[in-house]
């Protein structure tokens, strides 16, 4: 596939190496990671970044995700001022500070998670999405902070919270501070449960470690996109531990559903409609009780 | 090289072997070598002092998993009363990597649970080197809810390389088991005091570590990933574990400095394994004192204190 393409458009083929799914800025063509089909980018965009040939779900940036999901023109971004903090002055082969700067430059985001208030048809929600292009969507203190603020905001307005998780896990450069975000975010979700405000977790490819082992698994409803890789330990770590090849489809969305960890696997095309329907039903009693329609005044 | 001593403890091992030899010679031949032995013992104490005066974070990481380091059950025996161990998650199995039960602290009933590593090879395997599977966390959850029902304070002891990264653990929902414990512990209406006694390995440690008060023994560590794991990801080689340990600041005195733990408990000279009885005594005093401090809080205040304790790890 690459050969004929290489002859045809030499400059493009080099760009096709590595993860090009979401950041060829002005690319006309994209290649499906699953079936290798060459896809016309504008068409791929129209198809919500799902391969028309094989239904492969391309990774989305946080901003792409929320703009696809929420009604346009209702969106208000929240907590934009929350910035990452290098408490440990961490340095490996590079300074954490520099890794942050370069992640901020490539993504145009301040942190690995975005929070927006918006609507799904007539249901108002608070929504979060993490960004894999920003240090593998890892959970830092600032990510935890935005998550907790989103919960408090949702609780204050009695709005449901939807979170799109994509993450390699906790951010190593913040060591124990990042680990503590697992406890913080889980405790925050527990507050939502105690107050009966819906929390829907959507797990997208890939989702691992401290994120899966905290808020992402704690949804009133857990949903995954098809064929996403989701787990606690990464496949390489497991292979090294058990010294055997992992079974086909291990840690896929479908595997998780088969083992009872998630409620449903939903195609990206149907996510918005499904979540809207679920929320309407989950909120029906609450709304009838207070005589409050989805269009309430303080929104 | 003596496998019961770490590399930097080898000079101590040699000196102690000499002392032992001298004792043996003395008693076998009826020669009085007492002065000589005392002399060497003093020398040994000085040697330990000088080695332990300036330990690197990497050396402390090794001490935290020292082959002779006391485990949860050792402390249970020395600190608490008769221990009635409770078993099983009521769903799948009894995970021996986590032990839990009812006992007494100074005559008052309490619930104690913790990771348990094995001592001999067979026991190590039975206890999966202190790496719990989901059923271990679910057993912990069951017994912590039990503690809340009967208004029993909970003491947890953290000592694990991490949650078990295995196929079976993933199938049975390792992530969910950990996440659920974090959520559960955040709202239990009973005091929870956690102590890192050895290795605090990531989510597998935190899953029994959401607490009102977090203590750590002097030579224990607590971090998001092991120094080896961190080094192989960020430096692309496990040879940089020492650098990774230093960068992460995972040892107790650094954690105290950073406000991540509430109290550090000093270890006896040369580490907890050199005088477990003394260590247990120190730990018991700390636990009693910390429980006393929490006794003035109401149920709601306990939950609020635990929640707000986590909020200090946010950003402005």
Q: Are there runs of chain A of 5+ residues with pLDDT below 50, and where?
A: 12-18
Oligomeric state of the chains present here? heterodimer
Span from first to last CA of chain B?
A: 51 Å
Give the mean pLDDT of chain A: 91
Helix content of chain A: 25-40%
Contiguous helical run count of chain A: 11
Largest sheet of chain A: 7 strands, mixed
Biggest sheet of chain B, open or closed, and with what strands and sense? Answer: 8 strands, mixed
Give the fraction of residues assigned to helices of chain B. Answer: 40-55%
Please provide the count of β strands of chain A: 9
β-strand percent of chain B reads 5-15%
The overall average pLDDT of chain B, rounded, is 95
Low-confidence stretches of chain B: none
Major sheet: arrangement of strands of chain A: 3-4-5-6-7-8-9
**What spatial form of chain B do the alpha-carbon principal axes imply?**
globular
Largest interface: A-B, 59 and 54 residues
Distance between the termini of chain A: 51 Å
Helix and strand content put the structural class of chain B at alpha/beta
**SSE string of chain B, helices as H and strands as E:** HHHHEEEHHEHHEHEEHHHEHH
């Amino acid at each position: 596939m690459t050969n004929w393409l290489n002859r045809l458009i030499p400059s493009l083929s080099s760009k096709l190496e590595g993860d090009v799914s979401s950041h060829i800025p002005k690319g006309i063509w994209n290649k499906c990671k699953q079936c290798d089909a060459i896809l016309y980018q504008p068409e791929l965009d129209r198809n919500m970044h799902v391969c028309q040939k094989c239904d492969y779900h391309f990774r989305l940036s946080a901003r792409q995700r929320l703009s696809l999901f929420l009604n346009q023109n209702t969106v208000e971004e929240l907590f934009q001022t929350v910035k990452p903090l290098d408490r440990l002055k961490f340095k490996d082969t590079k300074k954490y500070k520099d890794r942050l700067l370069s992640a901020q430059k490539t993504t145009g985001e301040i942190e690995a998670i975005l929070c927006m208030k918006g609507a799904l048809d007539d249901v108002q929600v608070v929504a979060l999405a993490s960004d894999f292009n920003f240090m593998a969507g890892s959970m830092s203190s600032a990510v935890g902070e935005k998550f907790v603020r989103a919960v408090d905001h949702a609780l204050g307005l009695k709005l449901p919270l939807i979170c799109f998780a994509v993450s390699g896990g906790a951010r190593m450069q913040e060591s124990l501070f990042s680990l503590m975000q697992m406890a913080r975010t889980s405790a925050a979700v527990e507050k939502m449960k105690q107050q009966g405000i819906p929390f829907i977790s959507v797990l997208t490819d890939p989702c691992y470690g401290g994120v899966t082992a905290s808020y992402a698994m704690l949804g009133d409803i857990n949903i995954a996109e098809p064929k996403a890789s989701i787990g606690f330990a990464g496949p390489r770590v497991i292979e090294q531990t058990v010294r055997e090849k992992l079974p086909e489809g291990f840690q896929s969305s479908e595997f998780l559903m088969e083992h009872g960890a998630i409620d449903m696997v939903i195609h990206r095309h149907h996510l918005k409609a499904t979540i809207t329907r679920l929320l309407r039903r989950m909120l029906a009693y609450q709304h009838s009780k207070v005589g409050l329609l989805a269009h309430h005044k303080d929104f | 090289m003596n496998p019961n001593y770490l590399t930097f403890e080898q000079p101590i091992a040699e000196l102690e072997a000499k002392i032992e030899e001298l004792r043996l010679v003395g008693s076998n031949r009826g020669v009085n070598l007492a002065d000589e032995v005392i002399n060497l013992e003093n020398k040994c104490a000085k040697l330990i002092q000088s080695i332990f005066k300036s330990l690197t974070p990497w050396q402390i990481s090794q001490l935290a998993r020292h082959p002779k380091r006391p485990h949860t059950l050792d402390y249970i025996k020395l600190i608490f009363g008769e221990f009635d161990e409770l078993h099983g998650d009521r769903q799948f199995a009894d995970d021996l990597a986590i032990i839990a039960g009812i006992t007494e602290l100074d005559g008052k009933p309490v619930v104690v649970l913790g990771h348990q590593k094995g001592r001999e090879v067979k026991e190590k395997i039975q206890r999966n080197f202190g790496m719990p599977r989901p059923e271990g966390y679910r057993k912990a959850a069951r017994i912590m809810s039990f503690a809340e029902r009967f208004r029993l304070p909970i003491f947890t002891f953290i000592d694990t390389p991490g949650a078990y990264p295995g196929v079976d653990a993933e199938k049975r929902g390792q992530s969910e088991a950990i996440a659920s414990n974090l959520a559960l512990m955040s709202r239990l209406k009973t005091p929870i005091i956690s102590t890192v006694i050895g290795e605090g390995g990531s989510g597998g440690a935190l899953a029994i570590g959401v607490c009102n008060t977090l203590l750590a023994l002097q030579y224990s560590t607590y971090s998001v990933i092991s120094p080896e794991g961190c080094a192989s990801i960020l430096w692309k080689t496990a040879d940089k574990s020492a650098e990774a340990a230093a960068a992460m600041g995972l040892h107790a005195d650094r954690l105290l400095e950073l406000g991540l733990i509430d109290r550090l408990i000093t270890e006896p000279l040369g580490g907890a394994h050199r005088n477990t009885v003394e260590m247990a005594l120190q730990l018991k005093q700390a636990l009693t004192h910390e429980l006393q401090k929490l006794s003035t809080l109401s149920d709601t205040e306990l939950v609020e204190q635990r929640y707000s304790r986590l909020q200090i790890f946010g950003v402005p």
